[in-house]
Specification:
With about 550 residues, the chain is of the alpha/beta class. The chain contains 20 helices and 13 strands.
């Protein structure tokens, strides 16, 4: 499958692409992003590549600008430019390399380069699929009918490769302005004054808007599949969706939201089986587990209130920043989006009130499995504040015949099974009726993940080691091959906060003698313990992925 992104800059395409890649990889599909912007930056100036003399001249101009001997370029607002706004000139010598004039639809030379780069990346994408990849994402604006038709025509010669367009449309001016602020930190504007970078990016955006055509009748006449995501999933339009993978993409994207929230993940308190070193089972908590359960409820109470304060302060800072932009920068959005409205003091006030009204939702849920040790861990949460749900999908991985045994007993009684598990923990399935593998657990948790993406408030998941590994592998984009070897001991709380460029992780560790939690370094906490015994070249191949056995996964 080839997923081709469509949409204007600052409309959340990168956000969608990264989430989609993370989800599909977690499901077991070989997925890769092919970003046209990264390749375009390598193309250099409008002459495609700098000569050595041009590079030396650019560096000399930067030095003079740093010494205050040369004013910023009026054409692209960065040092060393020509100051000529003519499309042909397009600030080719400028430090931004690709100023806003490079994206002028009337700039024929720059347009040719952009089209060439997009097609080169598309060829790379197809070569990767031919080498065994399953899902490739073409990450670019692809905002013209001509570009999209060129990609469709190129795919006609490829067999067994399906095409799907995903267009991100955003009419929320608050979100657009926040995205523009983030864009000033992109690789295009390294070393550029943030205000100058924002002015240049807004000029680039206006150039894109002149040529932009949304997906519609032209693509429908060619019978292509497409999905439009409007205002981060508030409205979704799906057309001609036929394949299994395509339907998975649409279903997942329908459940996105940008509400501030935290996904807390912890294992249950110590159980009697934990103390005895036994796996599985349905034992109750030990005395130490009861102590952890009481401390966990107190800790989440504090974190719930602290996070509300953090969001309030963040919204206030963003509102102040955007109000400054809305008051001083004309044309902060296109005429189509603003319906003729202009950025005025009234707009600035509305913007501030809108952002400050976006507070943490009052709801906070606690999810447990259906096993006693997790339900007992959640007993100390106030039911007037927290809604507790018991979900069977969060049950621990089922060990079949090995339920209730220690690993030493498994090695003694089932030596072949013990060795097979050491060779491939992800695909290994425990023997006996109902025995599961980590690959099975991924499929079992698929609906849980979608629900976690859909909800607009924070949630605490009290679950088990295999479940915690699988969930954290999704949120932190950890390869499934490493998932079973993540060290996640009892007594840790992992907090995943969705942010524009990925999930931010914080980790707390329970300290028994303090009967409280302390924050520790998140990177150090997510350790992976690699197995000492590695698969040999003569070992049997691993079980196929459930994504391959349960479904016919087409490219």
């Amino acid at each position: 499958l080839v997923v081709v992104m469509v949409g204007l800059p600052a409309r959340g395409k990168s956000y969608i692409v990264k989430k989609l890649k993370r989800y599909l990889s977690w499901l077991g599909f070989q997925t890769k992003i092919f970003n046209v912007g990264d390749r375009r930056r390598l193309a250099g100036s409008a002459d495609e590549y700098e000569t050595a003399a041009e590079a030396r001249g650019r560096l000399q101009r930067r030095e003079r600008a740093d010494d205050g001997r040369e004013a910023p370029c009026s054409g692209c607002s960065s040092p060393g430019g020509s100051g000529d706004n003519d499309a042909a000139a397009q600030c080719a010598q400028c430090d931004t390399r690709h100023s806003s004039a490079f994206f002028d639809p009337d700039n024929k030379k720059a347009k040719q380069i952009r089209e060439q780069v997009a097609l080169e990346v598309f060829e790379d994408l197809l070569r990767w699929l031919q080498a065994g990849g399953q899902i490739a994402i073409h990450d670019a604006t692809n905002s013209t009918i001509e570009r999209r038709q060129a990609l469709i025509s190129r795919l006609k010669s490829e067999t067994d490769v399906n095409l799907m367009f995903v267009e991100s449309i955003c009419n929320d001016r608050d979100i657009i302005n926040r995205n523009i602020k983030l864009k000033t930190h992109s690789p295009d504007y390294v070393g550029i004054d943030p205000d100058a970078a924002e002015a240049d990016f807004r000029a680039r955006l206006r150039n894109y808007e002149r040529a932009y055509r949304t997906i519609g009748a032209a693509e429908e006449r060619l019978d292509v599949q497409y999905c439009k995501i409007i205002d981060v999933g508030k409205k979704v339009i799906a057309y001609n969706i036929q394949g299994f993978l395509e339907s998975q993409v649409v279903f997942y994207l329908m459940n996105m939201n940008l509400e501030p929230r935290v996904i807390y993940i912890t294992r249950h308190g110590e159980s009697e089986d934990n103390a005895a070193g036994r796996i599985g089972g349905d034992a109750s908590l030990s005395a130490g587990g009861e102590q952890y359960a009481r401390a966990l409820a107190r800790f989440i109470d504090r974190r719930r209130l602290d996070f509300a304060v953090e969001v309030e302060e963040y919204n206030r800072q963003v509102a102040q920043s955007l109000c400054s932009t809305a008051s001083s920068t004309p044309g902060t959005c296109s005429e189509a989006e603003s319906a003729g409205a202009h950025s005025t003091a009234a707009d600035a006030l509305r913007l501030e009130q809108s952002l400050l009204s976006r507070r943490v939702q009052p709801g906070f849920e606690v999810w447990t499995s259906m096993l006693k040790r997790t339900m007992e861990t959640a007993e100390y949460f106030d039911p007037h504040i927290y809604r507790v749900k018991n979900i069977k999908s969060l049950n621990e991985i089922y060990a079949g015949k090995c339920e209730g045994m220690t690993y030493q007993e498994i090695a003694r009684d089932f030596p072949e099974e013990f060795e097979a598990r050491q060779l491939d923990k992800f695909y290994y399935r425990y023997p006996g009726i109902g025995g599961e593998s980590y690959a099975d657990v991924v499929l079992r948790l698929q609906q849980v993940i979608v629900e976690l993406e859909r909800i607009r408030h924070s949630v605490l998941l009290v679950t088990h080691r295999a479940m915690a590994r699988t969930l954290l592998a999704y949120f932190m984009d950890i390869p499934t091959t490493h998932m079973p070897d993540m060290e996640l001991p009892l007594g840790y709380v992992y907090a995943c906060e969705p942010r524009p460029f990925g999930n931010h992780l914080r980790v707390w560790r329970y300290v028994p003698h303090l009967d409280d939690f302390e924050e520790i370094d998140a990177a150090a906490a997510l350790r992976i313990r690699y197995p000492q015994t590695l698969p040999s070249s003569t070992s049997a191949p691993p079980l196929p992925s459930p994504a391959e056995t349960a479904y016919s996964a087409r490219n």
